[in-house]
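Example (one chain per record):
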Amino acid sequence: REFFGKPSMETRPQEGHGQKGEFNDSQEMEKRQQEMDRRRKEMETKQIEMMKRSLKEMEKQLARTRSFFDKHAAKGVPIPSECTNALDTISKMIETMKAATTMEDLQNAGMEEMQDHFQTINDCRMKVEQLARIPQMLKQVDREIARMERNWNRTKKNAPPETAGIVSEGDALFQNIKDTRKKLGDLSQHDDMEDFQTALEDGVFGRFDELRSVIQRLEASRNAKKFLSQAPRMLKELERIIVRKKKDGEDISKLTELLGQMKLQIGTITGLKPGSEEFQDAVEELAGLGQAFHEAAGATDENRANFFGQQGSEASQHQPLLKLPDSFQGFGGMRGN
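Predicted structure:
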């Protein structure tokens, strides 16, 4: 029994020692957590203060933008409703943010959507600037239409009777251009630039191209008799070139081939209706053969005969921001912190 007696003090467990250590660890963790919370709160407060200071700059930007819209509206420029709606929305959001005390308050004020509203306003500014340029664009269109009208009237004046169909086609095209110009005036009173640009490009400048083609055909038809009467003389000139080349001992096989093709092409042109698209295409093909002939003959620019290449050439010569402050950037990335 003595041998198995009470344990000595050195080997007896220290009652309460483990519990005390655990208590101290818990206190330490709690202190660390409190310190982290304090720092987080401090950082959040600084962030909120910095954002609130930025709100003043945002208000200045909004005031300048509102003044921009008001100035253009006073000049009769239509202001899209989404522009003023976005301005009003951001203004209300700023007032709510001024009263925020936590990041959650800012988040609830719609801060995440603010960038989208800013982008809407910036897009609106660009659209309004385009709309503001429409009056000047219409003046240019009117000048181009007046120039084209003079050209068309000059071309169709004293047109031969056989070209009546071409003249009617040109008149219809020009009337279509004038109708589109009236439509542009109506579209300029709305805020849809896409419709305006489509009408301008297709209904005016696109029609200009078509009218130029008609002018070219009309001139070709008017000059058809002269063109055909000159063809034999031009062919004889080319034949003399071949004879001269042959005397000089040069190879004339290519020139002879091209001359034969031109003779056939002239025969084809003679059977076509003057002023028709087929007639004009055939004349252009003949001009290409003439160009190839003179290149093969080694003609220079000075002495190269323009083999019917000027048909209608005269007519063909008439071808004219809101920004989020840095303190607001990356707001979405700090929500999970």
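Caption: The two ends are 66 Å apart (CA to CA).
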